[in-house]
Amino acid sequence: MTRVAIIGAGISGLACARQLVKAGVSVVVFDKGRGIGGRVATRRAGDLQFDHGAPFVRAQRDDFSALLTSLTGGGSAASWTDDKRVTWTVGSPGMSAIPKAMGVGLDVRLGTQILKVTADQFGWHLHYGETQYVATHIVVTVPKPQIAGLLDYAHPLVAQLGDVKMEPGLTLMAAVSGSAPLIAKNLSDDPLALITCDSSKPSRPLNESSSWVAQAGTEFSVTHLEKNLPDIAALMLPLLCKRLDVTLSRITHAVAHRWRYSRVSKALGQPFVSTPDRTLYLGGDWCVGPDIEDAWTSGIAIAQDLLEREL
Q1: 134 close to 125: Cβ distance less than 8 angstroms
Q2: pLDDT, tens digit, for every residue of 42-60?
Q3: Mind giving me the DSSP string for 55-91?
Q4: Domains of the chain, start order
């Protein structure tokens, strides 16, 4: 019996799993995190919430556009116009609603970190703790820098990924008493590459504070990556206050988050790589590009290849 194991419950893994399950394939998705979605995430703190990963999404492919339309119709997504009058799709009531809706009906096993993957005549063995899961096919959709640790640095597929680059990103989540319109436009040398007013998105909590997410640029993130999170927040907060033209006394909440693999800066240039026997696939946004749709594209391409060639 065909059994597909997918490592990583981000957008790529979920897209692949949905397509395979729709075709009647037995699929199990493993993820080390407490929730699905990877960097499409929402953090909650009391009556505050922040989309501290991907802040919004837009579709170019027809099939991905159809997914967003379906999610919007089902109430898991909504349209939102930013301060530059550009319209995006956002999760509702948070970005994490998008992967949660994609995961409905899937066998997703959270809090399960796969330590290594081996193969023998019985199939692929996923090792976690003292337990193994055996599958006929395996799809790995974790960030590129984590793949060698799973397979082995000498695995032939690992050598094919050498040119792929992923950059870290530091994120500040802050609440400001009252409203605070964004004053300064983004500058090319600004340490804060993107600032989003999360509380302006639809279906967000209503309270007396406005919620903001500031994402640092690559240079700032690399320089300060290993600092502890309170120190990172202390560095980023004055930068945000300057852009919002507010005093530190108006800040009611400030927490930083570290994304070690935040953005694809050099993609593989193809949607996946696989072993010649098509029983092992590696994919993810790092194959195609930095956007959510790129992750979707990789996952769908893997599923289609599996169905056409093997299943």
Answers
A1: yes
A2: 999 999 999 999 999 999 9
A3: --B---SHHHHHHHHHHHHTTSEEEEE-TTS-EEEEE
A4: 3-36+103-164+269-309 (3.50.50.60), 44-95+166-266 (3.90.660.10)
